[in-house]
Design a protein that fits this description.
The protein has 18 helices and 24 strands. It starts with 5 loop residues before the first strand and ends in a 12-residue tail after the last helix. Mean pLDDT is 82; it is low at 1-26 and 487-491.
């Protein structure tokens, strides 16, 4: 067996002041090996060319040169610095040899610096990547970086919660280091012992491929780690084997993302408002898009007097994927936003003259039938929602083969008759373009878009998306629940109806008191003597034995109760 080069030394981890004593092989960096090879190649090339030149000049040209003169010619040729007196040759073989030597010199000039010299100096002067895990007490270890953990890492950084990323791709590791992340570069296949210190970590999150995740799980468990190990899997069928070999829980973010997209589009999967049935047919809820040229666009809510003139209450507006409750008369109605309005059905029809009603009837169009799109369609089918599937390639379950960027495909899919459009495309660049095309073609249709990289979310909203959901967002919600004891990414603010006692509102008008607007909750109806009143005269006052029907998000309703000492009643249909 050929002996390998070893060196016995005490190796000190500068970052952590820990020493490891022993014998280990000396490993030269690739750039150092290249530079050493170049230093050996250049003298050899000069020697070979000089020797051939000396023989050629003596035997073919009849003009002998000493070995030193030949070496001088070879060095001048390779460095392209000139020849002095040797500038003309008569014999064709010698001339051809000289020409080849000149091209070789030019080639070396353009090759040496970018390939050999510059990489060597870059590595010498750049900040070195860590190759050993730091002390892991209280830290979370992330194995491999990717879109699924982007949002969570930003939340960890914002909270100053310590973590370490173990990355096996050099360029990714450098990028993470430049962004200020604590990153360790290595390869589990070459050196499993690199994760020895993970035994004291608070938790381990695995975000590589399924097979690499399995390897990492086995390694950390073999080292004695007893804490939680969470894996993000590509395929649900790997959940059971991953748990069997040591994972605490296994999640499939792509499938969770599909469920989130489907629930945004389908009222059968996720009801838009909770408790609306308490008022029966007396009160309804509708959504309207505020067109740029609408009389509502850019107006203060207090200046529009929608309650007094039309008998409807604005609960809030969806804009940029976020729901903002209408808190106070100074709330601005944003162009392009989706306005959530509650009132009697006849009064809601009056708003249609000022804003574009959002369609809630018709099939749901799904563009993209990959892993995420297939999960979306599966959930819609389970909820018995009619859907039309568009994809570039024919496959079982695809209704229309075509490009969603083409108007002919949109017309064939009857997008203008859809209740929602879900873009589950694989590339964010294509999703941005498709969002603009669909929004221009069907401006009234709710548009829900899948995002791969969280930083592209704002681009999609500018292109016209109503909701843009990333894999990192849904994975961040799941992992933050386990690691940060709460959801790091805000979830949808669900709208609720609640029956309440009047409390300190007794003697007030339910619509005309400014203090009522500050909580964000709205009094929609008042039950008095078995009758439910949804419109009120100017002199109407709330009585102590009335029952209020209040609408808002969970936070709004909690503030309403706290502000006015209003206690909730047992939910039952009005008039009973």
């Amino acid at each position: 067996m050929r002996p390998s080069l070893h060196a016995c030394a005490v190796i000190t981890d500068i970052n952590n002041n820990d020493s490891i004593e022993g014998c280990m092989p000396i490993r030269l960096k690739r750039s150092t090996k290249r530079l050493l090879a170049l230093l050996a190649l250049l003298p050899a090339a000069v020697f070979v060319l000089g020797t051939i030149y000396m023989v050629g000049m003596d035997q073919l040209e009849g003009s002998p040169r000493t070995f030193l003169e030949s070496l001088q010619w070879a060095s001048e040729t390779l460095t392209t610095t000139g020849y002095g007196n040797d500038s003309h040759w008569r014999h064709p073989v010698v001339a051809l040899f000289v020409i080849l030597g000149q091209f070789l010199g030019q080639f070396l000039v353009f090759l040496v610096f970018p390939v050999f010299v510059l990489p060597f100096f870059e590595e010498q002067f750049e900040v070195r990547l860590q190759h050993i895990l730091p002390p892991m007490e209280g830290k979370v270890l992330f194995y491999r970086y990717g879109p699924a953990i982007e949002s969570l890492l930003e939340e960890f950084k914002r909270r100053k919660s310590p973590f370490v990323i173990f990355e096996e791709d050099l360029q990714t590791a450098r990028h993470l280091r430049d962004r200020g992340y604590n990153v360790v570069f290595g390869n589990l296949g070459d050196d499993p012992a690199v994760l020895q210190r993970a035994v004291k970590a608070r938790a381990v999150i695995m975000n590589a491929g399924d097979h690499a995740n399995a390897t990492c799980t086995l390694i950390v468990r073999e080292h004695g780690f007893t804490g939680p190990v969470y894996a993000l899997a590509d395929e649900p069928l790997y959940r059971a084997p991953m748990v069997q070999i040591g994972a605490t829980e296994v999640f499939t973010p792509a499938h969770v993302l599909g469920g989130a997209l489907a629930s945004r589009a389908s009222a059968r999967i996720s009801l838009p408002v909770e408790g609306l049935h308490l008022l029966g047919a007396k009160i309804g809820m509708a959504e309207f898009r505020i067109r740029a040229g609408s009389v509502l666009a850019g107006q203060r809510l207090g200046d529009l007097h929608l309650r007094q003139q039309h008998g409807v209450s604005v609960i809030g507006q969806w804009h940029g994927g976020r729901f903002a409750t209408a808190e106070g008369f100074d709330t601005m109605l944003e162009p392009g936003a989706i306005l959530v309005v509650v009132g009697a059905p006849a009064n809601l029809e009056k708003i249609e003259r000022m804003a574009m009603p959002i369609r809630r009837t018709g099939p749901i169009v799904v563009a993209g039938f990959g892993t995420v799109g297939a999960k979306v369609v599966q959930m819609l089918n389970d909820a018995e929602e009619p859907c039309t599937v568009i994809d570039r390639l024919p496959a079982p379950g695809v209704h229309i083969v075509g490009n969603v960027l083409e108007l002919a495909t949109l017309e064939k899919a009857k997008v203008r008759e859809a209740s929602a459009v879900i873009l589950a495309l694989a590339q964010d660049s294509e999703a941005v373009f498709a969002t603009a095309v669909v929004r221009d073609y069907a401006p009234e249709i709710p548009l829900i878009v899948r995002v791969n990289r969280a930083h592209n979310t704002e681009r999609l909203y500018r292109a016209g998306a109503d909701f843009a959901i990333s894999q990192g967002q849904v994975a961040g919600q799941i992992l933050a629940y386990h690691l940060l004891d709460e959801q790091a990414v805000p979830v949808e603010n669900r709208i609720k109806f609640s029956r309440m006692n009047p409390g300190q509102i007794t003697g007030w008008h339910p619509w005309r008191h400014e203090v009522l607007e500050r909580t964000g909750a709205k009094i929609i109806a008042v039950e008095r003597n078995g009758d439910v009143l949804v419109e009120f005269e100017k002199d109407f006052e709330v009585a102590g034995d009335d029952t209020l029907f209040v609408c808002g998000t969970a936070d709004n309703l909690e503030r309403f109760q706290r502000e006015f000492q209003a206690s909730p009643q047992v939910a039952r249909p009005a008039g009973r």
